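Protocol step 6 of 9: fold each sequence in the batch and record its structure tokens directly after the sequence line. For illustration, a two-sequence batch is reproduced in full.

Sequence one:
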Amino acid sequence: MNELKKYNIINFENIYVNYGMTTVLKDINLKINSDENWAVLGPNGSGKSTLIKLFSHDIYPNTEYNFKKEIFNKDRWNIFELRKKLGIVTNDLHNRFLYQGANATSIDVVLSGYEGSIGVFSHHKFSAEQYKDAEDVLKYLGLLEIKDKKVAHMSTGQLRRCVIGRSLINSPQAFILDEPTTGLDIKSKQSFLSLIQKLAKKIPIILITHDITEIFSEITHVALMYDGMIYKQGEKDDILTSENLSKVFGLELELKKENNRFFVIPK
């Protein structure tokens, strides 16, 4: 997947996070390497969204505890620079384009990755090389034929791909994808998961999800979240068991696998 020397993407030890007096993450220990693809799986309210904010430096650990919080082997980052190296695609970002950048075209969405903006503005100046790179990204994503299509007229799947392209333009060293198929119909979901599988062969992926059907064959490791903690983590086949899933989702479940896809049924 990554031909360069292996490096740490995430290296967290003994991290606690508080919102006011409430502890929302407890004893987070997580190490993710560049030759791995991870899924962070858990029910709604288990702490997954807070963990993303920890990745993105939007929140910080409780300093009452001795902790380690390193991303790409650094504990301090300029957030703008971090977001170029760590491509984070969330539903919040998708919705910001939908409601604040409706007049942006596909190529505008991709180019806005250079500026960290929602769309492009008159004061943004891009070189011919940057335009060519944006077109190459659209081609890779299967969107070149709609490069002038506005966000307001796109399908959910098309916009989701454009938002991926916005991160790709900066050649990130890893991707974090938050509930990536939310809002997609069955056909669009399969198409989008195929794209993520394609990306995962080139760039390390950290998939944040409550939906086990999103966990594709290229995922190598899984962390299960439960009540603000990482309940278990490790290689996918060791962690994805009926017993573990029943525990974190609070329901007796039987894990099944068919055509390299996981699914669960209630017992």
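Sequence two, same batch, same settings:
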Amino acid sequence: MFWHIYKYRVKSLLKTKMSVFWAFIYPILLGTLFFVTFGSSINKNSIETIDVAIVKEAESEKNDSFVEMMEKVEFEDGKRIFNILNLDLKSAEKQLEDESIVGIVRLGDEITLEMGKTGLGASILKEFTDEYTRRFELIEDAATIDYTRIQDVIEVNENRKEYVEEVSLGGEKIDTEAQYFYALIGMACLFGSFIGMVLGKDIQAVNSPIGARKTVSGTKRLTLMLGDLAAAVSIHFVGLLLVVVYLKYILKIPVFSQPLPCVAVVFLGCVMGVELGQFASCVAKGSEGMTIAISLAISLGSSALSGLMSPDLKRLMDRVAPIVSRLNPSSAIADCFYSLSIYSDYTRFAKSLTILAVEAVVLVVLSFFAVRRNKYVSV
């Protein structure tokens, strides 16, 4: 009987427009919007060439070398980092005020830098200028101490390597932007509550003819609920896996570095999301609009407190209400992904996954008892 219920509930849900939208279409649309918003910061090739004004106030070998170096430096894809504009001071200041350029480099006895708004381009320009100044001063000091060793100093500077690399404790490269997409997957999991609402509605005789037929059938309520739940979770789970494939292989977002643990998180997240909607539908005493409002408030509220809109809010919750933060299902999902990307062992991951599993089981039990206690004078 369980598989019979499962098969026909899958067919029923796939014919429901709302279920198809929330399981397949909505997560892909949201992932695309997130990519448009944050994706460019993940792709290094999207950094634009920086417009810089050069104002020459004095001729010197140091200044000529600086300009030559600016013209040569490139991004990893071969695109030039700086676009140099040779201007007089007045024109340069006018363009800086209009935000047509990122900064002004004045080449006099000293190299000085003027910048407008802060940003990635301004940071790159400042770092380049400071680094060049440090290296040139090092060569000058070497010439003062021992002129014959200047060439050795120059070669050391040209062949210098970066020996420090930002990695996680598990040895994986940290990608902070990817965390937004993990939070997005968490929210998409909880939006399975809209599919769960259909299950809660169709298990109660007062809400639909399907509920009335199920109530008078000889099948146990638990079997009915578990069959419906398995069908809904299957659809939602497949939908989110398609979203992951879309993010990873179409949009090229670096997510799911450890596939199996991540799949386990997504599965439990789907169970949690579907059960949130089913439980809300079983206990809410009001119209369908009221049930939708409750499910939406829980899903969006949980996602907001997990740091989806602002990471500062997540840190604030961890500080002022750590228990609430740990029990928040969206936070548990995000923390699972965070743990997998940061730590080499699975201790913290296991704790967050256990919290998520326990909450899902509790909701299944509560939904069952909420339906079981319903009594009807007539059906």
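Proceed to step 7 once all outputs are recorded. Observation for sequence two: Strands lie at 50-56, 82-86, 103-107, 111-115.
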